[in-house]
Design brief:
The protein has 175 residues and is mainly beta. It contains three helices and ten strands, in the order αβββββαβββββα. The strands form two sheets. The protein has a five-stranded mixed sheet with strand order 8-1-2-10-9. The longest helix has 6 residues, at 3-8.
Length: 175
């Protein structure tokens, strides 16, 4: 019995070794999705659920980007089409179209809203130092909705600010 050999097999504190499982020890995770072939991301901790597209119940006099509401286990959830809100082409609802339901906790209240996107892509593990500020030139997505940019492989991913997205539906109603 070689005690030295056995001691080398004992994991050190903070070291994880389960085959096939990646442990996240630092950084943040972001759910990435597509809008008109562009990659966007939101903080994964705000993602309540990813649902397949279903036609929501219309709300009279709502802006065009608010598709309506759905009943999600007794909670009425407004559905906002991000492509329409950001003015990124025409919305089409295909098999890959999903609704990302985000819940944002602010002080003593939380708000849940569903956002229609073209498709969900991946989950990115990102260190905060890798998030670059968004340039201050005009684009289809207003600067207030952008937290930063990430270089992911050959693509640039725009990180959206969930707190500001939650305010999207508060724009003045059409008359």
């Amino acid at each position: 019995m070689n005690i030295q050999a056995m001691a080398q097999d004992i994991p050190v504190e903070g070291e994880h070794s389960i085959e096939g499982v990646d442990f996240i020890t630092s950084g943040d995770q972001y759910l990435t999705f597509l809008l008109a072939d562009e990659q966007y991301a939101v903080d994964i901790l705000c993602v309540e659920e990813i649902r397949s597209w279903e036609t929501p119940t219309k709300i009279p006099n709502a802006p065009g980007y608010i598709k309506g509401v759905i009943n999600m286990r007794g909670v009425i959830v407004p559905i906002v089409d991000l492509r329409l809100k950001f003015g990124i082409g025409e919305a089409s609802y295909l098999e890959t179209t999903v609704v990302i339901v985000l819940t944002y906790q602010n002080d003593d209240k939380s708000r849940t809203i569903g956002f229609v996107v073209d498709a969900v892509s991946d989950v990115l593990n990102v260190e905060s130092v890798d998030i670059k500020p968004a340039p201050a030139f005009g684009g289809c997505v207003s600067q207030q909705f952008i937290d930063g940019l990430i270089n992911s492989e050959q693509k640039v991913v725009t990180i959206l600010n969930v707190a500001h997205l939650q305010q999207v539906e508060q724009h003045p109603m059409n008359s």
